[in-house]
Amino acid sequence: MRPPTPFAPVPDRLGEPVALVEALRVGDPLGHASWPRTVPGEELGLWDGDVAAELPGLVAALPAGERMRCFAPHGLRLHTAGGGVRDIAFCFRCHAPPVLGPGGVRESPAFDGESAPAREPLRRLRAAEARSA
Asked: How far lies 91's CA from each of 7, 50, 108, 125, 132, in Å?
């Protein structure tokens, strides 16, 4: 049985508040199985302060979903004040997000990319992408 919110542990695993978030246009999405320790890509924008602090909660609220196969992701790189980093590459169409953590730890929980909780992170990522174009 899938957990109802597969990303709920992500904020706790960071161990401290998020101070900075990089929004990414993911490069080489088809090579995701060989990504080393970070999600490769172009920075679309940086979020700090309250915006960065609330993003882990938005991620944690994403409900479980069925995995599909397209994988055309956006990425987030969450930085804590103490230097911890966790990368997530979300595909809101196929619901597949590799999560890369410290030491190259890899998780791939499926989420519902069409759910109400998914709309706000997707809106923010699309807005960052539009500003960078």
From this structure: 14, 24, 11, 11, 19
Query: pLDDT tens across 16-25, in order?
Result: 889 999 998 8
What is the arithmetic mean of pLDDT over 6-18?
77
Cβ atoms of residues 98 and 111 within 8 Å:
no
Angle formed by the axes of helices 49-60 and 116-132, nearest 10°: 140
Within 8 A by CB and 6+ apart from 29, the residues are 71, 72, 73, 89, 91
DSSP state letters, 11-48: HHHH-S-EEEEEEEEES-GGGGGG--SS--EEEEEEEE
Give me the phi and psi of 41, to 5 degrees please: 165, 175
Of residues 9, 19, 12, 13, the one with CA closest to residue 80 = 19
